[in-house]
């Protein structure tokens, strides 16, 4: 965060405030970890704060300290709207465009609070008065750690906060294997462990608590994988019928897209997941090397994210979307084969 915005934030937080903390829709480990860590910090420093999530989040994140205090905008609509409308400060974490909060966007647009953005995705919009945007960071959780340090309060990071921040860093870096993982990321993680973060236990809670139905769904996804060697690409499809057959629960497909990148020679991995309730096809893109799935998703699939990890969507059927997707690959062949 630049010095001007940091000083402005310090001034804002110099007296007790009513604060709402917002993650993106379908929040992941980084979104939940960063919002809860910030919530603990603000409450511990005398503020009245609440995390308001646009919708529910995966069961494997609900062990996190403070998770039972998160308001669900879909299920606790009146209370959530009151919290947003009464807020003097609204922190938005792990997203940089109000379109990422779904039906909550109207409430945020009507809010009179001062907005503070903390995010590491590319091409931020300008809705926030105070911005901390850094695409070089591994995760929003790492940014929350840095922000607390910049506020002069690093010693106030509790074990609960350390566990939340560690979770977000671990999940958003693919257990520290993604390109955005830096030596400084590891220094942050080391300090979090010194402050009580339980790395082994966190990894177990996130990755080793699968249901049989989730593993059966993974088997279905892998069976559906198509490999396009000519374009160094692999993609997976999951229909609504297949999701229903294996009793899909929120978060069950987390990480499925990454399996494509475990294949030798594959540079681009994609998963297409049908969501009939929302009437869209959700798409996740992953890449290795210099191929920017952020640019690809923004150009063709109304999405975006990071250079090597992005999301998008399609209003067409799986078949129509796959036909369109594969028709795009010839123009990217040289980039994908480089």
TrEMBL record:
Q: Per its UniProt record, what Pfam families does this chain match?
A: DHH, DHHA1
Question: InterPro entries this protein is in?
Answer: DDH_dom, DHH_sf, DHHA1_dom, Oligoribo/pAp-PDE_c-di-AMP_PDE
SUPFAM superfamilies according to UniProt: DHH phosphoesterases
Residues in domain DHHA1? 236-324
Q: List each copy of the DDH domain by range.
A: 18-169
Q: The organism sits in which domain of life?
A: Bacteria
The Gene Ontology terms for molecular function here are: nucleic acid binding
Q: Which residues form the signal peptide?
A: none
Q: Give the protein name, as stated in the record.
A: Exopolyphosphatase
Q: Which organism is it from?
A: Maribacter hydrothermalis
């Amino acid at each position: 965060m630049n010095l001007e915005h940091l000083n402005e934030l310090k001034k804002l937080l110099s007296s007790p405030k009513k604060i709402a903390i917002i993650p993106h829709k379908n929040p992941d480990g980084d979104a939940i970890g960063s919002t809860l860590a910030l919530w603990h910090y603000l409450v511990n420093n005398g503020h009245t704060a609440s995390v308001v999530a646009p919708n529910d989040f995966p069961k494997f994140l609900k062990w996190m300290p403070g998770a039972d205090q998160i308001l669900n905008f879909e299920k606790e609509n009146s209370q959530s709207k009151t919290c947003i409308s009464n807020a003097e400060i609204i922190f938005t974490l792990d997203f940089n465009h109000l379109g990422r909060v779904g039906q909550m966007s109207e409430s945020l647009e009507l809010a009179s609070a001062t907005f503070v953005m903390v995010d590491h995705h590319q091409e931020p919009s300008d809705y926030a008065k105070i911005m901390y945007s850094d695409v070089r960071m591994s995760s929003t959780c790492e940014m929350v750690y840095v922000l607390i340090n910049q506020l002069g309060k690093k010693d106030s990071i509790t074990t609960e906060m350390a566990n939340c921040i560690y979770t977000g860093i671990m999940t958003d870096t693919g257990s520290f294997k993604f390109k955005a993982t830096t030596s400084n990321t590891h220094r942050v993680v080391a300090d979090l462990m010194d402050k009580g973060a339980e790395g082994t236990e966190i990894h177990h809670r996130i990755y080793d608590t699968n249901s049989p139905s989730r593993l059966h769904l993974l088997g279905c996804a892998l069976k559906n994988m198509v490999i396009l060697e000519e374009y160094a690409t692999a993609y997976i499809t999951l229909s609504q019928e297949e999701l229903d057959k294996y009793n899909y629960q929120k978060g069950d497909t987390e990480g499925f897209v990454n399996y494509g990148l475990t294949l030798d020679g594959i540079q681009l991995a994609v998963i297409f997941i049908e969501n009939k309730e929302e009437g869209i096809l959700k798409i996740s893109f992953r890449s290795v090397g210099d191929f920017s799935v952020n640019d690809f998703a923004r150009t063709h699939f109304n999405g975006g994210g990071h250079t090597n990890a992005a999301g998008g969507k399609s209003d067409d059927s799986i078949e129509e979307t796959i036909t369109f997707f594969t028709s795009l690959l010839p123009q990217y062949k040289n980039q994908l084969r480089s």
